[in-house]
Amino acid sequence: MPGWFVESLATQTLVLFVIRTVGRQWTNRPSLPLTVTILLVVVIGLVLPYWPAADRLGLRSLPLTYFLFLSIAVTTYLVIVEAVKSKVIRRLLPN
């Protein structure tokens, strides 16, 4: 359960960087408040399983190897979302 929670929170929050603009996310910088808020939510999600109250929330510490999976899963998810977004925009907004 904690792995699912952390992965889901990271992907569903970081996807905001991709879907917030029609163009590529690296060519149009997000605002500072958006960036800080998104990164703060992800950091809280990463730290929450290690807090003393985590057990009461049904969370447990994650093994370090999990974070390798997490980085691959999040990167793959965001690349796929960007590819799909590009195709949808090309269909909806033809030149």
Task: Bin the helical content.
Answer: 55-70%
Distance between the terminal alpha carbons, to the nearest Å?
Answer: 45 Å
Reported for the largest beta sheet, the result is: none
When the domains are counted, the total is: 1
Helix count, DSSP H or I runs of 4 or more residues? 3
Envelope shape: elongated
| SSE sequence, one letter per element | HHH
What does this structure look like?
The chain has 95 residues and is an all-alpha fold. Helix content is 66%, strand content 0%. The chain is built from three helices and no strands. It has helices spanning 2-19, 32-47, 64-92. Helix 1 runs parallel beside helix 3 (64-92). The radius of gyration is 16 Å and the shape is elongated. The chain starts with a helix and ends with a helix.
Topology:
Blueprint: H1 2-19, H2 32-47, H3 64-92
What are its keywords?
mainly alpha; 0% strand; 95 residues; single chain
In short:
The chain is mainly α and 95 residues long.
